[in-house]
Design a protein that fits this description.
Blueprint lengths: L15 H15 L3 H4 L1 H15 L4 H10 L1 H11 L10 H14 L8 E5 L6 H12 L7 E7 L2 H9 L1 E2 L10 H6 E4 L2 E4 L1 H4 L2 E5 L14 E6 L8 H14 E9 L11 E3 L7 E4 L52 H27 L3 H15 L3 H13 L3 H14 L4 H13 L3 H20 L1
Parallel strand pairs: 1-2, 1-7, 2-6, 7-8
Antiparallel strand pairs: 3-5, 4-5, 8-10, 9-10
């Protein structure tokens, strides 16, 4: 459902009764919101399957498809059009390759694990593999799992033979490096085949998460827009559960704004990638293992009183300094808790604005909070991510450095700086930041 569907012609013999009984089955099986593909497309699919089985009555077909698993799969094949092409949105694969290169420096993170769900006929996961090989990773440094509900699409992926329709970009130099010609088709290199494991699976199945993950990168492009509200929520929960805490979620162009969880842009708007936003529960200590203190409570301005008569210094002893009223431990704890709660609310609201691509408003909110609450690593890190998403690398870099000034063990800021350096082509500095992040994580793991 996620590969650039072409409109299907309306059937010559509409079958509204069959559509009515099949629609809830498709909603349950694959979460399909029929309105997104149109009733005409579904009528056509049902008519094709009824004709192939020699069934005349819609009710009879509904009974058959409800109990016959192979027929269910056949109907899904008619509804789902698994169409894609290599390096669809090339900037996405460039960004993911830089991210994967950064992750490889982290202890215990090799191989980088990537999920492509759904994967159509393999164009997307094979594109990822090409991008990672081209950036310098070897076979031991990454692995890709690819799943789809279409048996036919998975069979094409296993064959690895593609027509000219799979090559639609202006730059096709990758085809010369990774494909050979045979009988009018482009055959993919065996080195790429070895990096991708194709499996039939359904994201909506209750047992899908079992034995999977965690993943550093998950591709789930242009699927959510075809799902109903309940199915979309279930898929988002599955993706959230399978993604590493610092992982990357790559969606289709229209999908980031419809996500309901704690997500925010991970890069420029054109890469449609998300990562988890700052935690909002216990914001003052939301980064596990970090020792950042809560922002200091603001004190009230001193009250000016009328001047007292000047003492006669010849007769009076020097006045003792007046000590400020003592602050109880309970009051200090309450003030810290109030500041943490206010920071948590700011982070949550700014994250929601960012996920809606309202970066300027999110940044303004953060700036106001910084002036009111004082500096915090969580706030500066969020501001750095916002600047990075808006393409302002200089300000992003400045915010990440301020994060590290307040919390030298903030590994995510080090990784973000590595990505910024990679975007600028400064490989030496990127390596330095990656190594620093690896040392920080190693110390945390040892503690």
């Amino acid at each position: 459902m996620n590969r650039g569907k072409q409109p299907l012609p309306a059937p010559s013999l509409p079958l509204p009764p069959a559509v009515a009984v099949v629609e809830p089955l498709l909603r349950r099986w694959i979460g399909l919101d029929v309105a997104t593909v149109g009733p005409a497309a579904l009528q056509r699919a049902v008519r094709i399957r009824m004709e192939s089985l020699g069934i005349d009555r819609p009710e009879a077909y509904a009974d058959r498809v409800a109990t016959d698993e192979p027929e269910r799969d056949a109907l899904v094949e008619e509804v789902v059009v698994a169409e894609s092409w290599f390096f669809r949105d090339p900037q996405v694969f460039e960004f993911v390759a830089r991210f994967a290169m950064t992750v490889t420096a982290l202890p215990g993170r090799a191989p980088v694990r990537i999920l492509s769900a759904p994967c159509a006929a393999g164009e997307e996961p094979y594109s990822v593999a090409m991008a990672l090989f081209d950036i310098g990773l070897d076979t031991s440094q990454f692995h890709i799992d690819a799943i789809d509900v279409s048996h036919a699409a998975l069979a094409r992926a296993a064959r690895g033979r593609y027509s000219a329709n799979a090559f639609r970009n202006a730059d096709l130099t990758f085809r010369d490096r990774w494909f050979t010609s045979a009988d009018g088709a482009a055959v993919i290199d065996d080195r790429l085949r070895g990096q991708v494991a194709f499996t039939w699976a359904n994201l909506l199945d209750d047992g899908f998460r079992v034995g999977r993950g965690p993943y550093d990168v998950i591709f789930c492009r242009n699927l959510l827009i075809y799902l109903d509200t309940e199915a979309r929520s279930r898929v988002e929960a599955t993706l959230d559960a399978l993604l590493r805490p610092d992982g990357l979620l790559v969606l289709g162009a229209a999908e980031p704004p419809i996500m309901k969880g704690r997500w925010m842009p991970a890069g420029a708007a054109s890469v449609f990638a998300l990562r988890r936003g700052p935690a909002v529960a216990g914001a003052a200590s939301s980064q596990a293992g970090r020792s950042a203190a809560p922002p200091p409570a603001r004190t009230a301005a001193p009250v000016r009183r009328p001047a007292a008569p000047r003492p006669d210094r010849r007769r009076d002893a020097p006045a003792a300094p007046v000590a400020p009223p003592p602050v109880s431990a309970a009051s200090a704890e309450a003030a810290a808790a109030a500041a943490a709660a206010e920071l948590a609310a700011v982070l949550a609201e700014a994250g929601s604005l960012a996920n809606a691509h309202r970066h300027a408003e999110a940044l303004a909110l953060c700036e106001t909070a910084r002036e009111r609450l004082g500096p915090s690593p969580e706030l500066f890190f969020l501001m750095g991510m916002l600047h990075q998403a808006a393409g302002d690398l200089d300000r992003a870099e400045g915010c990440f450095h301020k994060t590290l000034y307040l919390d030298a063990t903030h590994d995510e800021a080090l990784l973000a700086l590595a990505l910024v350096a990679t975007q600028r082509g400064d490989t030496r500095m990127a390596d330095t930041y990656r190594q620093s992040a690896a040392r920080v994580l190693a110390r945390k793991d040892a503690s």
